[in-house]
Design a protein that fits this description.
361 residues; alpha+beta; two-stranded antiparallel sheet; binds 2-acetamido-2-deoxy-beta-D-glucopyranose; transmembrane helix; membrane; transmembrane; Hypp5078 protein
Amino acid sequence: MRPTTKTSLPVRPRIDDCECTPNVQHLFRRHYLLQSPMYYIRWIYAVLYSLYLLFFLRAPTDRDIVGYIENTTMTMLIRRDGKTGECEVITVSDCKLRASGGYKLKNMSLRYKTGRNGVQILHFTRNGDDVTDRSQMFSTIYFYHTHSMHTKSHLFSNSLVRHIVDNDVKTLQESSYTSMPLHYVLLHSSLSVLMWDGNMSQYLGYGDACIRESLVEESRNMSALDGHRAEEHWNSHGKDTFAGKLFRSRLALRDVMGRHGIDPTLLDALFNHTIVHSVDHHGMSEWSCLRFSLHPWDKECSLYQALNTSVYRVLITQPNLNPLAPNTISSINKPFYQDLYRELKNIDTSWAEVVTASVMY
Ligand SMILES: *[C@@H]1O[C@H](CO)[C@@H](O)[C@H](O)[C@H]1NC(C)=O
Ligand SMILES: *[C@@H]1O[C@H](CO)[C@@H](O)[C@H](O)[C@H]1NC(C)=O
Ligand SMILES: *[C@@H]1O[C@H](CO)[C@@H](O)[C@H](O)[C@H]1NC(C)=O
Ligand SMILES: *[C@@H]1O[C@H](CO)[C@@H](O)[C@H](O)[C@H]1NC(C)=O
Ligand SMILES: *[C@@H]1O[C@H](CO)[C@@H](O)[C@H](O)[C@H]1NC(C)=O
Ligand SMILES: CC(=O)N[C@H]1CO[C@H](CO)[C@@H](O)[C@@H]1O
């Protein structure tokens, strides 16, 4: 099936369309009751667990950097170098992200090669300057991935939720939970982990380095994904790579939607909202259990920064779900989600377990 044109899509990519209008009030109530308390409970766990982890965390190596890229949505940016044919390249230009302290990430480029002796990073530049420090490299890629690439998997959620609620799509009811109030808190609340005008919440004791306004600005431009939308390209990575599994999951979702009579124009929105979002979190939390600073321009990673990063990883990037209402597709006893769960299990069992029906964390 050819992708439909933008105008016929019932859902649009808008991260900031998350106001609590009367028709979605029940979703906000549900979120404050069932999901948001988890952040307070988990905060205690995140601090204690991170104190323990401090004894084991080590600085990133070339293998960690490439592993992170190949097992998250960053993989969509990989291009094979045409000239030599043996290097993988990632380039990002016109980025709008800003970090505290007046730093801007404008562009970056990475070149690496996988040989018999493992992976080797050949070259990394940021804003036109060479960077050789592996920790800064990892921080920069992590910063870009979490605030630009990953955010793109959140973009369709608000609009999709409004569509489900306004049209009373019963089959997809579970896919309306939490996403909108979560976005509202991230963008508008003083409890957000993101910085507002460079200000950080005083209550949390940890926090992110990205400025909220710059994240919203960056989210308005999907062009980084141009040329990467061709799903065939994902498949060229190989059947069992992250990209290959995404490709097969998208086909599986399309078939399941067909079997359950769901509007096929919702495919990409639902794909991002359920599968892409969850497996991206899964990959990023598995590959970032390392000692690095969240701020890409930090020259050192002090003990405090390592703790700060670890708390962020355990609390924000690891799946944080209410065990009594997890909203994973495996836990929803309804034909559509069970069918999807069965299909995903054939692709990757660990993925099938982590996929949630909506953006939950
Ligand atoms: C989006 O970003 C691309 C580069 O990634 C740039 O060429 C383009 O002008 C931007 N579009 C808008 C509307 O800002
Ligand atoms: C990257 O940003 C730097 C600093 O703004 C600029 O000098 C350089 O030309 C940019 N490089 C590319 C490839 O856009
Ligand atoms: C989200 O869906 C859009 C819409 O077609 C697609 O182009 C994009 O690649 C998806 N984003 C991610 C991160 O997969
Ligand atoms: C951020 O802090 C500055 C100075 O401390 C203050 O002037 C500004 O109003 C604050 N902004 C917000 C959105 O709280
Ligand atoms: C945690 O690290 C971020 C990024 O460097 C920093 O902005 C933030 O202030 C740190 N948190 C605290 C509580 O200092
Ligand atoms: C844990 C995991 O999925 N690792 C994968 C990361 O990406 C590389 C390259 O695509 C795979 O070979 C690994 O299996």
